[in-house]
Amino acid sequence: MATKKRALFIRVLVQARPYWLLLGVIVLLNVLAVSLVLLKPLGLKILIDSGFNHAPLPGFIAGFFPGGIDFRTVVLLSVALVMGIALLENCYKLVIWLLNTVAGEKLVLRFRSNLFDHVQRLSLAHHDNMGTADALYRIQYDAANIKTLLIVNIMPLITSSVTLLAMLAVMFSINATFSLMLLGVIPPLVLLIRKSAAKWKQQWNDVKTSESNAMSVMNEVLGAIRIIKSFGRESIEAERFTDRANEVVDGQMRVARASAWFYFVVGMLFAIVTALFMYVGAYDIHNNRMTLGELTIILAYVAQIYGPIDVITRNISDIQSSLTSIKRAYALFDEPQEFNAAVQHVPCPAVRGRFSLKNVSFAYDPAKTVLSGINLELQPGDRLGIIGSTGSGKSSLLSLLLRFHDPSSGTIQLDGLDIHSIGLSDYRNQFAIVLQEPLLLSTTIAQNIAYGRPEASREEIVKAAKNANAHEFIMNLPAGYDTQVGERGAKLSGGERQRIAIARAFIKNAPILLLDEPTSSLDMHTEQMVIEAIGRLVEGRNTFLVTHRLDTLRLCNIILHLEKGKIVDVIRDPAPSYLEGKKALYTQQLQL
Ligand SMILES: Nc1ncnc2c1ncn2[C@@H]1O[C@H](COP(=O)(O)OP(=O)(O)OP(=O)(O)O)[C@@H](O)[C@H]1O
Asked: How many angstroms separate the CA atoms of 17 and 29, rounded?
């Protein structure tokens, strides 16, 4: 195993640490179960040798019958041995199967949970770049390969290796020539299995591709059925589907032919070995070099030996593909989290709200500056309205305040402390946010409102909803506060979702408020209700409000105008004429 693979394997073992004992028990049971496999033909051997040919019983059984044994007892003993071994073997299988399931599922659960937890803590820049599908695939499918590797690949590999070695050892003790002959068959058999496995894999992939081609024809046709009908193309599309479906049949036939040939060759190989052993064995028995019972054991092992060889060969190559998937899952683990645990952070002191931005610049991509040279001083209780045309950097400024991203240069201070020196979750806890598209979770209205403070009482939830002008519509819903909002709040209107988001901000009671276009997707009537609720919410809190609606700006005492990432002006306590001027400018821009 290359060094990298070995390092990865060690990482997997460390990840599996809480289950080492369980995995150890499974290995032990598997190895013990091998002795039962070996003992399987013993009953038959005793029946043949001691029942019919009057040979003495094997030493470890003879001790139980000091006075000798009659034919009837030998028969009963053989039958009892066959039954007893089968019973034990199946009990073992049952226990091992259950333990494998417990260990496998727990391994996956722990790995997935750790990975999920880690992914949530990756920077927003990472999520923006990678998207969600890739992370989802790695957590859902790649991580599950930890079970495949340890339980499906390695456990059977250990068991089969021990079984194979033990069978060869027993055979060797009975007849060295036979075991050496069998050893000679193993290398070509391994080669044959490896070559065939690679070929089958490719053929199965081809079958899957043909199947998905046939499916896509169906999908396309049923999705565009009106056009198909209007052009009268039904028969041609049916032919197109049949052509693709025929490729599936051809592919399946190729797999079937290859498998049939493989099993024919393997079957013949073992028939030749069995015939050879019978031929040589017959003379050995005739010349008293071996008993018939011993030959029976050897032939039984020959019949069983293909299983372990097959398992070992296939699993060695499957381990490679499991490790490749696990590597992808670990690659996600190795992405640095946004919070650097190595840096000592101070707890956030009680927020007074003095924000100071000094020469702050920022770029998502070094080639394009989004904010540059931002200088701003805010006093406790200030309500800052941020305006500017689309793409001017308003939301990016909020992202910097929330530490979703870090400035490329410059500093942001809160009450004299660099915000990067404050513990991240402690810092973010000082904020409540309301976005243009509020994100609700698929639980009840009450749980959504109490999201930032799950311990809130029902009275507090109702009070927050009343403050957010939401109580009335909530009470009109069939289950009131216990109504399920559906995925992302799909069962509620935009205005209702927004008021829930405002209630959520009320209940969090954070000293700093960020609002990003909270009213821009609402109709006029709803907007008025939301503005009224926001008016109550901003009282006594440091507020950053991004908006295109200049009416909403009347709630603010400072206006910051951004264009192309730079400050155009910052006006404290603007006169109504200033706002009117900005309104005129915006109307002009919109007309353009
Ligand atoms: N995650 C991102 N990655 C790269 N570029 C981004 C990202 N988010 C925004 N930008 C770019 O940064 C610039 C500023 O975007 P930002 O969203 O801050 O503007 P905005 O003033 O809030 O615009 P709008 O009013 O349309 O919401 C834009 O050019 C935008 O394309």
From this structure: 19
- Paired strand residues for 484: 444
Q: Is residue 460 part of a domain?
A: yes
The terminus-to-terminus CA distance of the chain in angstroms comes to 66
Cβ of residue 370 lying under 6 Å from some atom of ligand 1: yes
Long-range contacts of 123-127 (CB under 8 A, 24+ apart): 123/336, 123/337, 123/338, 123/404, 123/405, 124/338, 124/399, 124/404, 124/405, 125/364, 125/405, 126/335
User: Residue 589: CB within 6 Å of ligand 1?
Assistant: no
Residue 220: both structure tokens together:
């396309």
> Same domain for 28 and 137?
yes
Nearest residue (by CA) to ligand 1, atom 9, is 396
Q: Supply the residue whose CA is at minimum distance from atom 28 of ligand 1.
A: 391
Q: Per the domain annotation, does 344 fall within a domain?
A: no
Give the ipTM: 0.96
pLDDT beyond 60 at 589: no
Q: Name the closest-CA residue to atom 29, ligand 1.
A: 391
* 391: CATH: 3.40.50.300
Does residue 564 share a domain with residue 419? yes
Domain harbouring 140, CATH code: 1.20.1560.10
Asked, for residue 345, whether it belongs to a domain, the answer is no
**Residue 500 alpha carbon to ligand 1 centre in Å:** 26
Return the ligand 1 atom nearest residue 398 CA: 18
pLDDT over threshold 90, residue 100: yes
Q: Is 30 helix (H, G, I), strand (E, B) or coil?
A: helix
- Measured in angstroms, how far is the CA atom of residue 487 from the centroid of ligand 1? 27
Query: Based on the domain organization, do 413 and 369 belong to the same domain?
Result: yes
Report how far ligand 1's centroid is from the alpha carbon of 520 (Å): 17
Provide, rounded to the nearest whole percent, the portion of the chain with pLDDT above 90: 29
Point out the ligand 1 atom lying closest to the alpha carbon of residue 393.
18
Q: Of 394, 399, 566, 589, which is best to mutate to test ligand 1, by the most ligand atoms within 8 angstroms of its C-beta?
A: 394
Residues 241 and 122 in one domain: no
Higher pLDDT residue, 566 or 574?
566
* One domain, residues 142 and 216: no
How does pLDDT run across 260-316, given as a tens digit for each residue? 888 888 888 888 988 998 999 999 989 988 888 889 888 888 888 888 888 888 787
Q: Express each pLDDT in 443-497 by its tens digit.
A: 899 998 998 888 889 999 999 999 888 899 999 988 899 998 877 777 788 888 8
- Expressed as residue numbers, the domain containing 567 is 355-591
Q: Are residues 193 and 263 in the same domain?
A: yes
Distance 364 CA to ligand 1 centre (A): 9
78 and 12 inside one domain:
yes
Kindly state the tokens that stand for 302. 């020959």
Which pTM does this prediction carry? 0.69
Instruction: Please report, to the nearest 10 degrees, the dihedral formed by the alpha carbons of residues 73, 76, 78, 79 taken in order.
Output: 180
Residues 320 and 423 in one domain: no
